[in-house]
Amino acid sequence: MSAPLQNDNFLRACLRQPTEHTPLWLMRQAGRYLPEYNATRGRAGSFMGLATSPDFATEVTLQPLERYALDAAILFSDILTVPDAMGLGLSFAQGEGPRFAHPLRDEAGVAALRVPDLDKLRYVFDAVASIRKALLTTDDQGRRVGRVPLIGFSGSPWTLACYMVEGAGSDDYRLVKTMLYARPDLMHRILAVNAEAVAAYLNAQIDAGAQAVMVFDSWGGVLADGAFQRFSLAYTQRVVQGLKRERDGRRVPVIVFTKGGGPWLDEIAACGADVVGLDWTVNLGAARARVGDRVALQGNLDPNVLFAPPEVVAREAQAVLDSFGPPQRADGRWDGHVFNLGHGISQHTPPESVAVLVEAVHAHSRRQRAAG
Amino acid sequence: MSAPLQNDNFLRACLRQPTEHTPLWLMRQAGRYLPEYNATRGRAGSFMGLATSPDFATEVTLQPLERYALDAAILFSDILTVPDAMGLGLSFAQGEGPRFAHPLRDEAGVAALRVPDLDKLRYVFDAVASIRKALLTTDDQGRRVGRVPLIGFSGSPWTLACYMVEGAGSDDYRLVKTMLYARPDLMHRILAVNAEAVAAYLNAQIDAGAQAVMVFDSWGGVLADGAFQRFSLAYTQRVVQGLKRERDGRRVPVIVFTKGGGPWLDEIAACGADVVGLDWTVNLGAARARVGDRVALQGNLDPNVLFAPPEVVAREAQAVLDSFGPPQRADGRWDGHVFNLGHGISQHTPPESVAVLVEAVHAHSRRQRAAG
Q1: What's the predicted TM-score (pTM) here?
Q2: Contact at 8 Å (CB) between B128 and B205?
């Protein structure tokens, strides 16, 4: 477990330490745009069949790393495993999004909500351990090393609550926001349970070998100013405060990503996370100027760029790197940038575009360092 | 046509002039949450049957004003009338969003695109004139007056382009963004035609009697930083620059609303509009401090608040007003605030909530002025 890393650029960028190149990974990098993923999914029978099998999860987690020189692996799982373990009954119908059989709609349901027995999520922790093992390799000098770090993750308390109350995706969040405004007491209880559960869940992933963890606040951006701080950020912060931050003598960075969180950048940057994820609406250079001396930034290419020809993919990737600028500052200290998409990669993405992207990010960020 | 206004608080707020109370109107205030709207729609047979009939459009435009003391009327129409007049074939299937029979997908289609003959949109201008007439009343002193101002509107060039290329709503904007990144020349041509068409369309609404106009950049917020400025804001600005700004000796204010435009507030405020619309993610007080001396602000209650009990509706409305603060500044000058929702009102809204909202905004904003 404590084998050194062959490529630790990702962890170093998260911690604002010097890096050889700007590391990148992609949200949903193990996904439907890869034919080999679809083949494994076919064998597993369903999405949950994939996610609940440590062997299958390990197989698909490694697939993008075989194709591309990505700087991190991310656990193959779903953000909704926690509410599923709470007994809400998660399923994925063909061609649709997630659905809960037993959404939370009334006082009795909310009162009965409990932090789940983590044993029900054993398959996740087993997958983490299995992936760490699969990432081991032998370096030039015959040492056992990990190829790249493994990222664990969870949905944020608010994002989980959205699904738990709506019972599925939503385009107006009417049910969950009605509860928030009409019965804030019920909403706070759900969020408190979720925060405790998410912290325990992420700590168990860290125990199992996750070398960084990410909190996906996918739906924080649908909240009004004021409500975001009280109902999303406050509970994300509670999660972050509850996390183990060191394992095997190495800091475990925490990434918080609020899609649509641009208006609240300063507040999110103060939540205790090491890294703040940004969607593509945010100007990286401006964000760095505001909070770059306190947190690393992760982002933020529009995944739709990957539908353009190779020269455009390369140019847009360079534009993101140039917007952040050379990570080493004039005073010699380093700011941190992890290159990523501002959202999960589309299932329709041509796999060749990802190869172009990885090459462009590594090459251009090395040029930035050489020039600096 | 030049009858004075009985209540011109809305226009005065747009122009940062003194007001008796903070004026409010609601996006989609004539809509499916009102039983009388549904009855008229039933008689019209379809949404387009309503929108293309000046009589029906007048009837539904006036409906919310019969119920509530709203400070403005807004033309009942759709943002997609312009591409329909361009020959793209708009329809609304039952229970679905808009759809174009002939979306723009290739070079030939884009090359053939033309500013439409405004005569095809005659039904819109006739509706404007008809609504202005229907808004006339007789005041206490026996004078003919307009009850409240009438707002005209259009989609922004970018927002229209999204629908024109996608052919319908989208959750990832893959087709339109692929064109933007892969064939920016085609996208710029569509946007140039749209900008010219939208300016002509809004000017014809102003000629017909619209006393303010609003540009809905509903999908500007899906663009990446940089792309937003080049592909959305630049063309909205072109529209604004092409507008008649005065009629009957009175300034015709222009409102620009970019949903998700919070990250670009300063740039949007510099586009030439009198008023910038804000969604609920933006802190009104902070926005006022940044741009309130240059533009009025419109917004920004989350429409989901209207599902809460009356006391919560009133409290949240007061919170929005308090966030903006008393509009008269310490130096005696006035900043402008138009109260609105940060998005269209939901069809599921209880009509009683709107009554509570209108009363709360008027009463609390009068108290703010009395205290100030």
Answers
A1: 0.96
A2: yes
Chain A hits for B263, CB-CB cut-off 8 Å, are 262-263, 281-283
Task: Quote the mean pLDDT of chain B.
Answer: 96
Interface test with A, best of B158, B172, B219, B225 (most A CBs within 10 A): B225
Which among B173, B227, B263 has CB closest to A282?
B263
How wide is the angle at C-alpha A77 spanned by C-alphas A75 and A80, nearest 5°? 135
Give A181→chain B minimum CA distance, Å.
6
The pair phi, psi for residue B34, each rounded to 5°, is: -100, 120
Residue pair B121/B207 in contact (Cβ under 8 Å)? The answer is no
B269-288: pLDDT as tens digits: 999 999 999 999 999 999 99
Rounded-to-integer distance, Cα A279 and Cα A284, Å: 9
Lowest-pLDDT choice from A9-13, A359-363, B85-89, B95-99: B95-99
Does the CB of A98 have a partner CB in chain B at under 8 Å?
no
**Chain B residues closer than 8 Å to A180 by CB:** 304
User: What kind of fold does domain B9-296 have according to CATH?
Assistant: TIM Barrel (3.20.20)
Give yes or no for residue B102 having a pLDDT over 60. yes
In contact, B156 and B232? CB cutoff 8 Å: yes
Per-residue three-class SS string for A53-106: CHHHHHHHHHHHHHHCCCCCEECCCCCCHHHHHHHHCEEECCCCCEEECCCCCC
Question: Quick check: A94 and A170 in contact, CB under 8 A?
Answer: no
From A177, which residue of chain B is nearest by alpha-carbon distance? B304
Rounded distance, CA B287 to CA B292, Å? 7
Q: Estimate the crossing angle of helix B234-241 against helix B157-166, to 10 degrees.
A: 120
Domain A9-281: give its CATH code: 3.20.20.210
Average pLDDT, chain A: 96
Rounded CA-CA distance A243/A236 in Å is 11
Structure tokens given for B57: 């459009």
**Cα B14 to chain centroid, rounded:** 13
Q: Would residue A294 show up in a list of annotated catalytic residues for this protein? A: no
Helices (H), B209-302: 227, 234-241, 265-269, 284-291
DSSP state of B32: T
Cα distance between residue A267 and residue A66, in whole Å: 38
Token pair for B16: 């940062």
Mean pLDDT of A337-366: 97
| The pair of three-digit structure tokens given for residue A286, joined into one six-digit string | 């401006």
pLDDT, tens digit, for every residue of A169-182? 888 999 999 999 99
List the beta bridge partners of residue B256. B215, B276
From residue B362, give the alpha-carbon distance in Å to each of B21, B43, B297, B301: 6, 34, 17, 15
pLDDT in tens, B114-161: 999 999 999 999 999 999 999 999 999 999 999 999 999 999 999 999
Evaluate whether A149 touches A212 at the Cβ level (below 8 Å).
yes
Question: How deeply is B319 buried, as exposed, middle or buried, from its count of CB atoms within 10 A (0-12, 13-18, 19+)?
Answer: middle
Q: In this model, does residue B1 exceed pLDDT 60?
A: no
User: Is A132 among the residues known to form the active site?
Assistant: no
B316: nearest CA partner in chain A: A181
Contact B272, B256 (CB under 8 A): no
Percent of chain B beyond pLDDT 70?
99
CB contact under 8 A, A281 and B223: yes
User: Residue B172: which of A174, A300, A346 has the nearest Cβ?
Assistant: A346
Cβ distance of A178 and B308 shorter than 8 Å: yes
Quote ipTM for the complex.
0.94
Predicted local distance difference test score (pLDDT) of residue A46: 87
The separation between CA B181 and the C-alpha centre of its own chain, rounded to angstroms, equals 29
